[in-house]
C-alpha cells in the first residue's frame, strides 16, 4: 500500500514538472514563462519530496525534506520577483 | 518488470524530457533573462530526478545533496538578475 502511494506521488509530481517545462518551451513572453517557472515547478518538486517522506518514514529524512520544500517556497517567488523587476526595464 | 518500476521509468522519462525542453529554451532564448530562468528550471528539475533516484536506491545520504542543491540555483539567479537590473537602470 505504501509503495502505491509513493508511486502515485512521484508520478504526479514528475507529470506536473513536465507540464512546467512544456510551458517553458511553448509560451512566447517572458512573464508567462515566469508563471510556468514559478508555480507549477515548485508544486511538482514538492509532491516528489512528499513521496520521499512517505517512502522513508524517518524523522531525519522528513525534516530535511520539509526544509528543502520551505527553501523552494521561499526562493521561487523571490527569484520571480527579481526577474520581473529586471525585465521591466528592458530596452 | 513490475508496474511500479514502469511508473518510475515513465516518471524519469518525463523529467528527462523536461530538461531537454528547458535546454532548448536555454539555447534559443531571445533575452538573457530567459536563459537565466531556463537554467534555474534545469537545476530544480535535476533536483527532482535526484529525488527519484534516492527513492529507487534507498540511499538516505542523498537528502543532504538535495538540501544544498535547493539553495544553489537561487544564488546564481539573484546575482545575475541584480547585475542586469543595475546595468539597465543606467
Condensed summary:
The complex is a heterodimer of chains A (91) and B (90). Chain A has 91 residues and is mostly helical.
Task: Describe what this molecule looks like in 3D.
The complex is a heterodimer of chains A (91) and B (90). Chain A is mostly helical. Chain A has one domain. Chain A is built from 3 helices and no strands. In chain A, helix 1 packs antiparallel against helix 2 (30-56) and helix 2 runs antiparallel to helix 3 (59-87). Chain A starts with a helix and ends with a helix. In chain A, 44% of the residues are buried. Chain B has 90 residues and is mainly alpha-helical. Chain B has 3 helices and no strands. Chain B starts with a helix and ends with a helix. The mean pLDDT of chain B is 90. The interface between A and B is large, with 50 and 47 residues.
Helix content of chain A: over 70%
Binned strand content of chain B: under 5%
Into how many domains do the coordinates of chain B divide? Answer: 1
The portion of residues assigned to helices of chain B is over 70%
Per DSSP E runs of 2 or more residues, the count of β-strands of chain A stands at 0
The SS-based structural class of chain A is mainly alpha
The N- to C-terminal Cα distance of chain A equals 56 Å
Question: How would a textbook summarize the main sheet of chain A?
Answer: none
Specify the overall morphology of chain A. elongated
Our Rg estimate of chain A from Cα atoms comes to 16 Å
